[in-house]
Amino acid sequence: MTKPPQQTSCPVPEAERTWWKESVVYQIYPRSFADSDGDGIGDIPGIIDRLDHVADLGADAIWLNPVYESPQHDNGYDISDYRSIHHEYGTMGDWEELLAQVHERDMRLVMDLVVNHTSVDHEWFQRSRRRDPDYEDYYIWREGEDGEAPNNWESFFGGSAWTYDEERGKYYLHLYDESQPDLNWRNPAVRRDIFDTMEWWLEKGIDGFRLDVINLLSKAAGLPDGDPDAEWTGARHFVDGPRLLAYLEAMDEQVLSNYDAMTVGEMPQLSVEQARKYAGTDGPLDMAFHFQHTKLDYEDGKRWSVGDWDLPELKQITRRWHDGLSAEGWNALFWENHDQPRVVSRYGDPETYHRESATMLGTFMLTRSGTPYVYQGQELGMTNAQWTDVESLADVDARRATRELLDSGQYDSFEEVADIVGYRSRDNARTPMQWDDSDHAGFTDGEPWLPVNTNYEEVNVAAQADDSVTAYYRSLIELRAEHDAFVYGTYEDLHPEHERLAAYTQTLEYPDGGVSERMLAVLNFSADREPVELPTTVEDADLLLSNYDRDAITPTTAHEPYEARVFRLE
Ligand code: GLC
Q: Which run of H or of E encompasses 162?
C-alpha cells in the first residue's frame, strides 16, 4: 500500500469540521421502537431501556420523531401542544431522563419540529376558528368560491387541500390531512411563537432539529390555482415560496445561531440549487433531505405505483448532489425513514440475498461524504411487511390512497391493489422494532398497535451474530469514524453507466495538494456475478471491509451477488 505523504497540516481544516458532519444519526420512531408498559405503543422509557443498542452501533446522534402531545392522526405530525409530551409516550420527566441518558452515552438528541402545520386540536386553531382576535390570523382561512374550495390545491395525502369549517364559516388550508391545518407564517405573531418554542427546547439542552416539510412555509400571494397535471397540484405556489428564505434566515438569526445545534430540513421536491440556497455554506440550515433517489421506482412519476428502477439513474442523482453541495454545503444521506418502504425490499433482494443486499446497500450509504441517517431496523435489514386488507393498514396516507385506487375503477378488490399499497405504504417502516424472537418480537408484552413483521424470528437484534447485518453496519460506522475520507472526501464515480455495479472513490486531499487518503468502494447491485475493469490503478489496494468472507481479493475479481468491498488505495 502506498504510504500517505508526510504532511503536518491536517487535510480538513478545523474551521470546516463540525460534530454534525462527523456524526452518524440514528432515527427513532417512538411509537414503534420499544414499549415499556404493555399498552402496545412504544414509549420514552422503552427507548431509554434500549439506548445501548443505539450506542453500541456507534451512532453519534439520535433524531427522535415527534413526541409532543398530539391526537396522533398522523402519528405525532399533528401537534396539539408543542411544550408537553404525548401522554402515551410518557411525561416530561421521562423525556428529560432520555436526554440525560443520551448525553451520558456521548450521543446527541435532535428533535423533530413540525411547524408548517399544527393539529386542529391545538389551542391556536381552536381560538382561530372562534375568531379570537389574537389568533384569528394564525391559519390560512379563505372564503369558498360558489360553494367550492378557494383554489385547486391538492393535499399531499390526496383530495383537496381545503376543508370547510362550520364554526368559522370559512375554508382552511391543509397541505396534509384535514386534521393538520397550515400555519400562517406571514403573521409575525406565528413566527414569534414558533421561535419561542424552538428556544424553549434548545434551552432544555437538545442538540438540534429536523424540520418537517420546512420548504412549504411560504405560500404565494393570492393563492393562485395550480397546474392540475402537476405531481402535486399547486406545489409551484407553496414549495420554495417567495418568503421562505427570509423566514429561515430569521429563524437562524433569532434562535439557531445562538446554539451549537444542527438542523436538517425535510424539503419535498427539492433541487440542488434550492438546497444551496437554504442549506449551503452560508444558508440558514445545515443540510436538507431531498427525495430524488426515493422516486426511482415510481412508474410514470406516480407515487402509488411500483416501477422498475435503474442504477445509472441512482448514480447520476448521487453525483449531482455530491458535486452540487460538496464545496458549498453539505449532504444528508439516507435510504429509509418513517415515510419510506424498507430499502432491502426496494433496491435489494430480501428473499435470496437478504444479508448480502442489506449490507451492500448500507455500504453505499455509509461510505460517502455527508451525514448518514440510519432508520431504526435498517441495521437489521428489516423488510416490508404483509398487508392483507385495508383495515390492516394504519397509515392515514396509505388508507386514503387505497380508497382512491379502488375508486379509480381500475381495480376491483384490495388484492388487486395490494402489490402497490403493500410496497409503498408508510406502515412498512412503522412495524415494531424486532428485538428478539419472543412474542411480538420483544417489542411489547401487550398487543402491538401495528402487527410485527412475520419474519421477526429470523430478523431481530438478539439473533444478530458476528456476520450479521448489524455487525456489518457497526463496522461501517467504525470505518467512517476512523477515516475522514469517507466523511469529507471527494466522491468520484468510476463507472457512471454500468447497469449493475457501482464503483467510486472517496479522496481526501491536503489543502496544498497531495492525497491524504483515497478509498474505493465496489458494489454489486445485482444477483449476478460481475467482473469489472476499473479505470484506476488498484494493485496495492488494501481491503478494509467486505460483506463476503473471501481471501486474496482484488477490486477487479468477479463480484458475487450483492457483494460490497471497500478498499484503501492510498
Ligand atoms: C413529513 C413527515 C410525515 C408527515 C408529513 C406531514 O413528510 O415525515 O411523516 O406525515 O410531514 O407532517
A: strand 162-165
